[in-house]
Amino acid sequence: MREGWRWFGPDAGVSLDDVRQAGASDIVSALHHVPIGEVWTEAEVAARKNLIEETPPGRSPLRWSVVESIPIADRVKREGKVAAAEIEAWIASMESVARCGISTICYNFMPVVDWTRTQIDYVTATGSTAMRFDHRAFAAFELFVLQRDGVEAEYSEEDKREAAAAREQLGEDGLAEVARIITSALPGSTSDALTLPAFKERLRQYSGIDAARLRQHLIEFLEAVTPAAESLGVKLTLHPDDPPRPLLGLPRVASTEADYAALFDAVPSGSNGMCFCTGSLGVRADNDLVSIFRRFASRVHFVHLRSTRRESDSRSFHEAAHLDGDVDMIEVIKALVAEDRMRSPAQSLIYRPDHGQRMLTDLTRQSAPGYPAVGRLRGLAELRGVIRAVERLT
């Protein structure tokens, strides 16, 4: 298995030498500066690739192996194949990536919001900080700030009482911070940062789009792009929803084993693959991660390893240490190692330590929320140790 590391570019506070010192070999990156929906040019992709792969004398080489992510324009999610120009632009970006020798692309199909949290510096018992999704705070945002149409009917009376208590506890400034985190797009997001009025308008545009319709739009997107992916030798990997359940009255269609089975049945192309993210899928207690991986192993071309801890309210969770959350990481890694042994070196699984708690020098250092240096270094070291042990003992 090959060790990856998500890198947000030279201005993100974590350098390529940091990656080298962590021991990773494969870079996961994207052109985050290109607006959503615009074509990635071959020249820009090549410039980023050269920045990563032109190794200074005496330094360990790195390789840009995975693009995460080429954002899918919102209109595609709302209208499917009708958004032909936006789909063609996405294909053009994929072609630029492929011409530069990168053959794995991660993407998601979450409408309006990408991965969602309510807190980015939740203080843990060790003094490190983690990202958190607090359902009570999220409900307070929905009920008292966003106030979208029909929201009252979606929450029980008990939920409403807890949301009111959360609003009181957070105070005006705290609730405003929750709203900012939800609407402003977290690092690496493939959705737009929006003002509150624009956020409400974007939600309104999804009126009448249920899970069946959103899934059909995803299928239409895949039917359009997979022939090009096949011809280019590109593997597309769909990232799970995060959290893996409907939010803001919006459907989600990549949250469960059944969701992925429906997509693979509809578009059986070998280029239609999965990003196996243990953190996202692991939020749901009914997702059997080992079973999901084994069923779709041939479709898995990229892996995110992290763990979350569900709280007393099972709808709330925070980012745990990589080996300490609800994910049975040891059993997951056993399954990964068994699959990787059956692959050729060129097809070896690429995994990265996903997210990480801020600790030690991370606490006073610039880094993207969820992507500190030391916290991910700890995660990678723990995962590497388990992998080496499993490889030796099985």
UniProtKB/TrEMBL annotation:
Protein name listed in UniProt: Mannonate dehydratase
Keyword vocabulary terms for this entry: Iron, Lyase, Manganese
Highest rank taxon of the organism: Bacteria
One record GO biological process: D-glucuronate catabolic process
UniProt function note: Catalyzes the dehydration of D-mannonate.
Record-stated family: Belongs to the mannonate dehydratase family.
Signal sequence extent: none
Cofactor list: Fe(2+); Mn(2+)
Matches recorded under InterPro entries: Man_deHydtase (IPR004628), Xyl_isomerase-like_sf (IPR036237)
Keyword Iron in record: yes
Pathway: Carbohydrate metabolism; pentose and glucuronate interconversion
Catalytic activity, EC: 4.2.1.8
GO molecular function terms noted in the UniProt entry: ferrous iron binding; manganese ion binding; mannonate dehydratase activity
